[in-house]
Amino acid sequence: VLNYIPRHKQWYQRRVRVIGGAVCVSAGVPIYVYSAEISLERFGTALTRTGRAVGSVSKAAVLYKVRTIGIPEEDKVTMSKIHRLTAEAICNMCAVNGGLFIKVGQHIGTLDYLLPKEYVQAFKVLHDRAPESSLESVKKVLTSELGAHPDELFSEFDAVPLGSASLAQVHRAVLRSSGSEVVVKVQHSTVQEHSKIDTIVIEFLAKALDKIFPEFEFDWLIDTIKRNLPKELDFVQEGQNCEHVSRLFNDSPFMKVPKIFWEYTNRRVLCMEYIRGGKVDDAEYMKEHNINKSEVLSYLSKIFSQMIFVRGYIHCDPHPGNVMVQKTEDGRTQLVLLDHGLYQTLTDDFRITYCKLWQALLKGDSDSIKKQADRLGVGKYYGLFACMVASRTWDDITAGGIADKNSNLDVNRLQEEAVRQIPQISQVLNYIPRQLILILKTNDLLRGIECTLLDRNTQGVGTFLNMARYCLSALTTHKLNKSTSFRRSFVIYYTFAVCLAKLKLLKFLYWLSLTRVGRWCENLLPSHVVV
Predict the structure, then answer these.
(1) pLDDT higher for 237 or 122?
(2) Is the N or C terminus of the chain more exposed, i.e. has fewer CB atoms within 10 Å?
(3) Active site residues
(4) Where are the alpha helices (DSSP H) in 130-277?
């Protein structure tokens, strides 16, 4: 029928459909959620939050559908303006709605190499724009959860929080029982109530966008939210994760996690040791405390390389607010890992396949990249998938491997490529195993920290050498476990020892090439690592 209606009338009808759909959803979702226990106040709040979300996303969809008509791909100025307008509209909605919307927005802000820069720049501010609960609300939650007024439990309790996040905020306090200085993490009072309706709204919006923009797929985002939100809302599980990772890394003096005080911890309250330090991306703090930035990045890559390749147990939210750096009393640099609410446990088969993929990326072996990508379910998009994992262009990867000293991180070039291939990227994210989604998020967060601390001429190589070390260790252990003869085991171990010696030499030469004395021998560093 629309074919027989003038274009301006077609546009009017589309607007009516969008507005009508937004109204129906805004009213329908709260009724659906609260049908059994509806109250006027809760219904009004839900209606406002849902309407705000549906309205902002509808506005963005209309902008893309209408304003991009007739715009050539080369018109980057106009497209940048549209990206900025839509990103700001959705970002402001996330900031006002809070809760799960901020969580999703923060995730978007980490996708430096998958989304237009306008989105990344807009959504990164959400790390600092999470709403704060009032002190009265915080004390009410504490009293309800711990069975006593905070004044009975704490001799000191700071009114101003140390920080606020999407799901909770943290306050410094002192325990009456022991005098220990602690941090108390208290869940926002409305998070549990809002999370149910927020999940439904976000799922609806994702499915609606699938219909409006069939070239994009958002199932991966919905699956990730549904799978992980219950874990992040359970602070008992966070405490258990914290203790588990502490045991795994008890032989790593450069890493520390806070001690948990279980008698003051339950599903909505977490009490832990107070540790002083600066954010891992705070260059001024490091300068003031004589902390070497390259050493910090080396420790960071060692920790997460062990988690991914060796332990198969990964902290999935290492944004700068969750990783601190400090100087110990004996002058050592130490990283402090916070917020242990979300971990990903990898199966051994997946972990070994991912190790082999990174081994192929480090070598620049396109055939092996394709083989391992196929095992991960990527199929024909193996080249794009490799670029997403390594944050390098395919030409850089195949020219000599991603540990090539000339393979630097060109963020602008990667983002331009990503804009052109967003539909394909969304399909890749739907194809790959769900445990890989959080690994990609972790990779992006770590690279964001690296981009902040180092200039582009020194990015990448040191991190990749550390990754190669733990990747080699994991594959060697896997081969030794499968070996059935002493001779085979000896060959495997001998090969490991030789490769490890090469990596140590490469690491020394890389360090030397960054010093003034070593500039003249810069060409001694081989073009790529052969593992």
Answers:
(1) 237
(2) N
(3) 317
(4) 135-146, 150-153, 191-212, 219-232, 235-248
